[in-house]
Design brief:
538 residues, mainly alpha, Proton glutamate symport protein, 2 domains, two-stranded antiparallel ribbon, 19 helices, 2 strands
Length: 538
């Protein structure tokens, strides 16, 4: 009897293990993919030189396929999910849900900025560099007001079709002014001369010397410094890249109007709902390929690194500050906010998002990770699809906790490196501009570098000094993208919990409406049957 019990328990245990492995198969594959990618990249560094661009390009090919597939699904996913969510919500419910979403995003982003400022002021990484930082690379210039106007302008695209593949950007052109340095004094070396004057003199100096003299003059051609002068022209140009913000705004208003017109818009609502279902099915197929793509994305990036040991030495304290801030925000701040509002285990919720976090780390793009984020929320954390469809597309566009923390740290780090004092007023300006700039940052790799220029110019720091952090940006970008995705996920969970009463009320209304429809159909059918029977008797 005891043997039978042991065998039964063993059988149940093995079946339980199989169920756990089956439920977490994709997560296991993603973890293995990251490990293989790191090992492959470090191993190939000895075989493939960083100058071998052809091999690195081919190595990245499977990863490029993954990025292309994920980006291909962004447009149908955002449009279908937002329109379906808005058309399925009542105006009052969608207004409350939208308000909760915006408040959550603003509060968590501002908390991330404050945390970053506290850490960078405490650790002072700009004063603890071990050597001169490499300033190679170029930084994109930007100004605060034009960038803010670009953000607002792109909310309302002039052409909805062109918004799918381009957006508008203000281009400022300045006159180039050359500033020549002063000509240095010329050094003259004399031999066999009898003179009471100094051997180093200006060209205009008069000397008494013997007839035998050798004079050598050494001069260096002065190199002019090119600086920006007066504004020459200002224009609007179109640049490549999906205008996600414009599509989000259009979809929100379009879905809201569909909800208002009721039955007249039902056929169109059904079309977008069907499109959303099909898109999610396609996402499931892409997800099974994602471990392969992530492996080669990580490997190719590690192979292409130039002088990693020097980079980590130069910017070690800066990296430490950013990573510690991101870790505190991810494992303490966000889980605490989630627990306060939901009274649920935040780390179990985080585990359910592990696949999306690993994808975000591999792709360094919250927009490209959006399909995986929505899939994890609905399939693993069982968040209501209406909330997921409403919250996550907006979050992937405007909620950038990791980027906000990074920009605050980077701005003060650059100020410390340059020896520029940061008083309380400038710190406040950095906190506000970093929050606003993070909201306007695109969900694409290294988008924070573009908005970083806004933060620097707001406190009078030279924009070109972004080059100080270019060498390490690609590495930190992966971590802050993962934090951005985690913040979106926790936001969906919190908004669902706070909106549960509204969602239940809507479900009850839908259920009553369907019952009334059934009753009315029954009455109509009964009247038709009576009429048919009367006609038959006559």
């Amino acid at each position: 009897m005891a043997v039978d019990d042991i065998n039964m328990k063993t059988r149940k245990g093995s079946e339980r293990c199989k169920e756990i492995i089956k439920d977490n198969l994709l997560v296991i594959f993603m973890i293995i993919a990251v490990i293989i990618g790191v090992a492959m990249g470090l191993g190939l560094r000895e075989q493939v030189p960083t100058s071998d661009k052809r091999t690195i390009f081919y190595l990245k090919f499977p990863g490029d396929l993954l990025l292309n597939m994920l980006k291909m699904l962004i447009l149908p996913l955002i449009v279908s999910s937002l329109i379906s969510a808005m058309s399925g919500l009542k105006a009052q419910a969608s207004g409350k849900m939208g308000l909760r979403t915006v408040i959550y995003y603003l509060v968590t982003t501002f908390c991330a900025v404050i945390l970053g400022i506290i850490l960078v002021v405490s650790i002072e990484p700009g004063y603890k560099r071990n050597s001169t930082i490499d300033r190679s690379g170029s930084a994109k210039a930007a100004e605060g007001l034009p960038s803010l106007l670009d953000l607002i302008r792109n909310c309302f695209p002039s052409n909805l079709i062109s918004a799918c593949f381009e957006k508008q950007e203000t281009v400022l052109k300045y006159e180039q002014i050359k500033i020549y340095p002063e000509i240095k004094n010329i050094t003259m070396n004399s031999t066999d001369m009898n003179s009471n004057t100094s051997s180093t003199m200006n060209m205009s100096t008069t000397m008494n010397m013997s007839t035998t003299m050798t004079m050598s003059t050494t001069t260096e051609a002065p190199q002019p410094k090119i600086v920006d002068g007066d504004l020459q022209s200002i224009s609007l140009n179109t640049v490549g890249g999906m205008n996600v913000l414009g599509l989000v705004v259009f979809s929100l208003f379009f879905g809201g109007i569909l909800a208002r017109i009721g039955e007249q818009g039902k056929p169109l609502v059904d079309v977008f709902f069907s499109l959303h279902i099909v898109t999610m099915k396609l996402i499931t197929l892409v997800i099974w390929y994602s471990p392969i793509g992530v492996t080669f994305l990580i490997a190719s990036k590690l192979v292409s690194m130039e002088k990693p040991e020097e980079m980590f030495t130069q910017l070690g304290y800066y990296m430490l500050t950013v990573l510690v801030g991101l870790a505190i925000h991810a494992f303490i701040v966000l889980p605490l906010v989630y627990f306060i509002f939901t009274r649920k285990n935040p780390y179990k919720f985080m585990y359910g998002m592990l696949q999306a976090l690993l994808t975000a780390w591999g792709t360094a793009s919250s927009s490209a990770t959006l399909p995986v984020t929505m899939n994890c929320l609905e399939e693993r954390n069982h968040v209501d699809p209406r909330v997921t469809m409403f919250v996550t597309p907006i979050g992937a566009t405007v909620n950038m906790d990791g980027t906000a923390l990074y920009e605050a740290v980077a701005a003060i780090f650059i100020a410390q490196y340059l020896g520029v004092p940061m008083d309380f007023g400038k710190v406040v300006i950095i906190s506000l501009t970093a929050t606003a700039a993070a909201i306007g940052a695109a969900g694409v790799p290294s988008a924070g570098l573009v908005t970083m220029a806004i933060v620097l110019s707001a406190v009078g720091l030279p924009v070109e000094e972004v080059r100080l952090i270019l060498a390490i940006d690609w590495f930190l970008d992966r971590f802050r993208t993962a934090i951005n995705v985690l913040g979106d996920a926790y936001g969906a969970g919190i908004v669902e919990h706070l909106s549960s009463a509204d969602i239940e009320a809507m479900d009850l209304e839908v259920e009553k409406a369907s019952i009334n429809d059934e009753k009315s159909n029954g009455v109509v059918n009964e009247a038709f049957n009576i009429k048919t029977a009367v006609d038959t008797k006559m």
